[in-house]
Amino acid sequence: MTLEEIADFIGINCQEKKEITGLNTLLDSNENQLTFLENKKYLSDLKNTKAAAVLVTSENASEVPNGTIALICDEPYLNLAKISKLFAPNVVEMDGEKPLIGGGTKVMPNVYIGKDSVVGSDCTIMAGVFIGDNVKIGNNTIIYPNVTIYRDCVVGNDCIIHAGTVIGSDGFGFANTKDGKYIKIYQNGNVTIGNDVEIGANCAIDRAVFKSTIIEDGARLDNLVHIAHNCKIGRGSILTGQVGLAGSTILNAYVVMGGQSATAGHLEIAPFTTIAARGGVTKSITEPKKSWAGFPLFEHKQWLKLQGKISNLLK
Amino acid sequence: MTLEEIADFIGINCQEKKEITGLNTLLDSNENQLTFLENKKYLSDLKNTKAAAVLVTSENASEVPNGTIALICDEPYLNLAKISKLFAPNVVEMDGEKPLIGGGTKVMPNVYIGKDSVVGSDCTIMAGVFIGDNVKIGNNTIIYPNVTIYRDCVVGNDCIIHAGTVIGSDGFGFANTKDGKYIKIYQNGNVTIGNDVEIGANCAIDRAVFKSTIIEDGARLDNLVHIAHNCKIGRGSILTGQVGLAGSTILNAYVVMGGQSATAGHLEIAPFTTIAARGGVTKSITEPKKSWAGFPLFEHKQWLKLQGKISNLLK
Amino acid sequence: MTLEEIADFIGINCQEKKEITGLNTLLDSNENQLTFLENKKYLSDLKNTKAAAVLVTSENASEVPNGTIALICDEPYLNLAKISKLFAPNVVEMDGEKPLIGGGTKVMPNVYIGKDSVVGSDCTIMAGVFIGDNVKIGNNTIIYPNVTIYRDCVVGNDCIIHAGTVIGSDGFGFANTKDGKYIKIYQNGNVTIGNDVEIGANCAIDRAVFKSTIIEDGARLDNLVHIAHNCKIGRGSILTGQVGLAGSTILNAYVVMGGQSATAGHLEIAPFTTIAARGGVTKSITEPKKSWAGFPLFEHKQWLKLQGKISNLLK
């Protein structure tokens, strides 16, 4: 789709015929992608963007670097949302190749596997599983019944996905119009799961808005865990029952999160961090190998001491 | 079913042949419905009931208004539970018409659509979806794989329901017998979802005991959200991951609830209220447009101040 | 499998030909089972074991009782994990008898019922349900759509299992290697559910590592409840929405847990205990019929008083 067509779609004028292949963030966009600036906090990213074009208000248009075209509009984020629909793949592909299923793989009844998908060898795909279009699954992986894997997702070798889990559902993203309507930001990324990952029952792992939600090798997720879009779960991390992660949060390697603990979005948590059960993380944790607890969060020892102080109030 | 038959079923005497069509609350019952009074708190409702008959203890029988028949018994709530089974529709209808599927609607394999159900035009019903009997689904709605929609529920136009979500499961309702047995209160209501609603993966939205659990136009629910019976989610409300609502709570328009926040039952929350992540609401909120946090709940600014005071205890 | 073969599998020497039929804890092992001692806390259990053999470090080998063979190794727990795979049944049985379905039972389309399974009479098994191999289901039980019941589990009479719930998924168990790899402990137990149990939508109830996760007669579980491996939910207990139990915790009869409340693992909670919404239990509760709240947990009245004291900090 050309920039001209995109501009036309949102009702602004631009005669550039440049072909745009997708949407992305300021820093991750390549020379064929369109990006946006809504929040002045990211002005420095704007200066470093390599994007073909950027949706930007007139106020910030002068900061757009050479080589990037400014699409000047009043509500860049809302327009990005509208445009995201243009790049959304079909919910169900009509064309494409029959799925490839590797040798030794057992596919039970009532399984759906979409177009252009590949399942490796020696897997077990149990009854009621849905594997969407263009999904790649490695070797020796077990997918338990009634799991749903949305289109374009990737699952590695030697994984176990327990029943009812959903991989690749849409991240929770929308822009507001002035009259209180929400415009969906189509989540055109995917979920990429490494090797030797085990995921419990009835989890929900959202696909990325751009690029990938990532679960690295060796991670272990218990039941009813919620992973929002664009998170990264580092190698060997352990997330126990009912943990919830808001969007774009990065767990580095070997982070352990206790039951019902949670993080806010856009955080980074240092390797070998432990969050106790019910801990609620609202700021990034930069120092590795420490234990934290509570909401607000304290170092675990401090939290225990604080609870003693609090209970003294009863005396 | 006549009142006489109902009375006979619970072992009390009543010779009225009046036809009863269902059960309802004191205030919502019409002249063909049966209601009950267990808790004296609702005596004023009893005085205003239009019900055909009311299950009531002898102590409160004198308060039953003219035109309503008193069915006097020791345990009105327990008897209501027993009677609720008489009005429960079949789990699976044997008779009824084949479902109607609108033009342009794609129904994938391994989908079940029940008797007397109607799916509008231009919908996508993905593999593994269960749509029960007498369900109505509007136009241009996408239902992702392995979603279950129980009988009698209604979903509007332009909705997106993500994989694994359950709509219309029974509300959590039962009465106790004196010897510690629970008698199920059959949940004979439904769930009604408006237009332009998006619901995340692996949510659970219970049907009403009477009437409807309601999700109004434009609402957005993230993953793993729990909505108990008879709640109402107001227009444009946003419920993020792992939020839980207890029964009969009303969110007015544009309420925002952060991750893992929750409400007790039978509350009403004013329009444009924001509940921060982990907030726990135990009283109704009457003033609109305020932000709240914590459990117990405080105004957000007060909560932040309080956390500062609490952490000072460590000094 | 003989002890010699097992020892060989983990690279230690033992020439005993004794046939081993499975793995179990120190106290529950019978004379044909293998057990392990990792933590000195259980030395007294070691002295009382009736196991055929025990994985034990050289340091503790002298405490192994007569009649039990010591398999001396450096990392007993890690070796137990490795051995657990040898005793894991097939994910899907190839042989075995066709399932038996009782009279009056309705099985809807797109249902899978495994080998050697038995479904009683007058049940309703709705579309999309998966019932694994060697499952036993009693009479008059309703299983709603897209429920998954893993192999070897047992469900009683007069039960209702709501849509999307998973019964018998693997407990969250693994041992660490020194180089940061997790070795799965195969969960060779099952889930056993009594009579007259109702379980809400999208719950996850893990199978036991050894023996059974147990849900006793009359229990009621709401939606999105997480029960970890080897828990026992006592008769008539009530677990409301989004409750989570960590492994091996025992609720005695008629325990009530409010919304989003949780327990740590390896606890025992006295009969008729009430845990308020959001309560977090980290120690066993020995006195019956008391009410508790908060995290850390206090008696409910004390917790309310404490919240008053805390809010006074704002003055």
What is this entry, summarized?
Chains A, B, C: One of its GO terms (biological process) is lipid A biosynthetic process. The structure is a homotrimer of 315-residue chains. Chain A is α/β, with parallel strands linked by helices and 315 residues long.
Number of helices of chain A: 4
CATH superfamily of the largest domain in chain A: Hexapeptide repeat proteins
Instruction: Using a beta-carbon cutoff below 8 angstroms, give the protein chain pair with the largest interface and the number of residues from each chain.
Output: A-B, 42 and 40 residues
Strand content of chain A: 25-35%
Structural class of chain A: alpha/beta
CATH T-level fold name of the largest domain in chain A? UDP N-Acetylglucosamine Acyltransferase, domain 1
- Broad CATH class of the largest domain in chain A: Mainly Beta
- Roughly what percent helix of chain A? 10-25%
Number of domains of chain A: 2
Instruction: Characterize the biggest β-sheet of chain A.
Output: 11 strands, mixed
Radius of gyration of chain A, taken over Cα atoms and rounded to an integer in Å: 22 Å
Q: Uncertain regions of chain A: pLDDT < 50 for 5+ in a row?
A: none
Quaternary state reads homotrimer
